[in-house]
Amino acid sequence: MRLLLGMVLAASLVHAAKTLDVYFVDVEGGQATLIVTPSKESLLVDTGWPGFNGRDAGRIKAAAKAAGVKQIDYLVLTHYHTDHAGGISQLLDVLPVKNFVDHGPNRETGKGAGELTASWDKAVATGKHLVVKPGDKLPLKGVDVQVVAADGNVISSPVTGAGAANSFCAANTFPEDKTENARSTGIVITYGKFRMIDLGDLTSQKELEMVCPSNRLGKVDLYLTTHHGTNTSNAKAIVHALSPRVAIMNNGAKKGGSPESWQIVRSSPGLEDLWQLHFAVAGGKDNNSADSFIANIDEACEGKFLKASAMADGSFTVVNSRNKYQKSYAAK
Predict the structure, then answer these.
(1) How many CA atoms within 13 Å lie on the side-chain side of 225?
(2) Using omega within 30 degrees of 0 as the cis cutoff, is the peptide bond preceding 213 cis?
């Protein structure tokens, strides 16, 4: 009987130890974030850049291999810009994709936009296509993935547990952005008590629509800095309202990671650590995290990734693949 009880307890502990794993892939100032659920379903946000001898597709494939997944179940395209959508053809050369998710048609025109749209449409024809709007959810098992922004629209009702007045809102205004950045698909991912947010390249006008005068997004444990940490996004009113415990900046050496945005994130109430994919050259030592928290120190780098593993109780760990440094954050 004791042996049987021991086996049941061991099995329950193994089940309880299942994690939501998030790989922040270095695509040199673009985005490619691989999310693997406890049931081993995979969600990839964006595909990085084209060219570079398949560099970004290769880095995504390496992360997928480390995660133990052989296909992408859901590929979410935040918006039609080259650093987010350009790597789609090369990605399909190395990994199959089952479901393609976007906000609908590309609203930009011109030769470059047309070529990008054509490559995306060709890829979509190989699988299933989902067009999402704010409030929609992706059907992943055991994890809640809610769309909070898409095609220039944002959620009108608070997500569960959100809706409080935002004391960080101010009278400042931001210019209207008519590019695809403002049409980015943004998602909130919830696994038990753990919450993270990825808003693509949303610019500040759209950011504030979601959190002012009331915060419809609530607080998060992990914040992927918006728009690579540029100062046209990451407004204080949203970053401080989100009150992340940990922020991860998916900047490149010379793209994103602006000193102004770095300071806004670093001063956010309750922030414990700010991790970065790259040392931001423009920031110098005063506006970069300590080397142990940065995946790639040199401009010419090997493309090391950061990995976050979250438990359903809200605790999580972040690991730097370059130096194996890791830090755990207890459940709250």
Answers:
(1) 37
(2) yes
Please give the structure tokens belonging to residue 28: 């040199």
pTM > 0.90: yes
Name the nearest CA neighbour of 234 among 248, 245, 218.
248
Query: Which stretches of 179-330 are DSSP H helices?
Result: 204-211, 236-242, 259-266
Whether residue 6 has pLDDT greater than 50: no
CA distances from 247 to 8, 228, 323 (A): 37, 12, 19
Q: Which phi and psi angles does 101 have, rounded to 5°?
A: -120, 130
Over the stretch 239-272, which tens digit does the pLDDT of each residue have?
A: 999 999 999 999 999 999 999 999 999 999 999 9
Contacts 24+ apart (CB under 8 A), 324-331: 325/292, 325/293, 327/273, 329/221, 329/245, 329/246, 329/272, 331/193
pLDDT at residue 60, rounded to an integer: 98
**Between β-strands 153-154 and 144-150, what pairing exists: parallel, antiparallel or unpaired?**
antiparallel
Distances (CA, A) of 215 to 18, 88, 202, 226: 31, 34, 16, 17
Domain spans of the chain, in order of start: 18-324
Closest Cα to residue 31, out of 49, 14, 6, 50?
A: 49
pLDDT digit string, tens, across residues 103-120: 999 999 999 999 999 999
3-state secondary structure of 225: coil
Structure tokens at 314: 């809200």
Cα separation, 163 vs 212, in Å, equals 10
Cα separation of 23 and 110, whole Å? Answer: 33
Dihedrals φ, ψ of 35, to 5°? -115, 125
CA distances from 118 to 112, 182, 285 (A): 10, 21, 42
- Which overall architecture, per CATH, does domain 18-324 show? 4-Layer Sandwich (3.60)
> What local confidence, expressed as pLDDT, does residue 189 receive?
98
Q: Are strands 20-24 and 306-310 parallel, antiparallel or unpaired?
A: antiparallel
pLDDT band at 11 (very low <50, low <70, confident <90, very high): very low
pLDDT at 300: 87
Q: Under a CB-based contact definition with an 8 Å cutoff, are residues 155 and 197 in contact?
A: no
